[in-house]
Amino acid sequence: MSTHVSITLRPVVHTLLLALTALILAGCAQQRAPDYYDVPHDSTQSDAQMQAQGRDQARAPSQVQLGFGNSQKAGQNGGVSTASTGTQAATPAKTQLLAVAKTFLGTIPCLVNGNACPATRVTLTLAPNGEWRSRTVALGGATTQHSLAQQGCWHVIGTSPLRILLQLKNHNAKADLSFVNNDQLHINVIDNITPNLDYRLTRQADIDAISELNKDPAMSCGN
After folding, report:
1. How far apart are CA 100 and CA 182, in angstroms?
2. Residue 125: which of 61, 79, 63, 71 has the closest Cα?
3. Could you give the CA distance from residue 167 to residue 172 in angstroms, rounded to a whole number?
4. Cβ atoms of residues 177 and 166 within 8 Å
């Protein structure tokens, strides 16, 4: 008789154990957040993009605060000038080449007959609103290097290739330059001298604001 009762109770005990196990598992599942097993796809994608681009991304040249050339008129977007003068109508080329601040650097030998002067290293920064700044440093010799900082307004004077005139504050011409490409300027005329050879200024990775001119009054070039 006892053997029969034991055999009869075995299925009941087995069923109770299964039910108890199911209740325990259900309780554990309820304690976890609904999205416990969800993979944060958006975050993973963003992290991958940040790693590919670099977490400490440098700002584009158009976003660099120069300390000059940052004034904008109503309706301008991103620092690109939209004045409606005749020279402004020049062009898709101008919009592309001069829409962001750029710094160019080059060494120019003495252009005076007889080489009676030292070579100079010229740093030129063009701002989208029509301003420019330059630093000219005399090279060579035993004397201390002489540095000259200047500023003024640039104007488009040709389109094939894009050509600009640098004017000083007193409206005298400083230089006549042509864009060879996005990264090089050909010197047509500088300080009223036309070079016999091809001298160029090359675009630099870093923007030089020529900060020694920051104390001077802001320019109003109208570009």
Report:
1. 11
2. 61
3. 6
4. yes
Give the pLDDT of the chain (223 residues) as one tens digit per residue: 544 444 454 555 556 666 666 666 555 545 544 443 343 444 444 443 333 333 433 444 444 456 566 544 333 443 333 333 444 445 565 657 888 999 999 999 998 876 678 899 999 999 999 999 999 999 876 555 688 999 999 999 999 899 999 999 999 999 999 999 999 999 999 999 999 999 999 999 999 999 999 999 888 897 6
Provide CATH code, domain 66-213.
2.40.128.300
**Domain residues of the chain, as ranges?**
1-32, 66-213
| Euclidean distance between CA atoms 155 and 90, whole angstroms | 11
**Predicted TM-score (pTM) above 0.70:** no
- Could you give the CA distance from residue 74 to residue 11 in angstroms, rounded to a whole number? 85
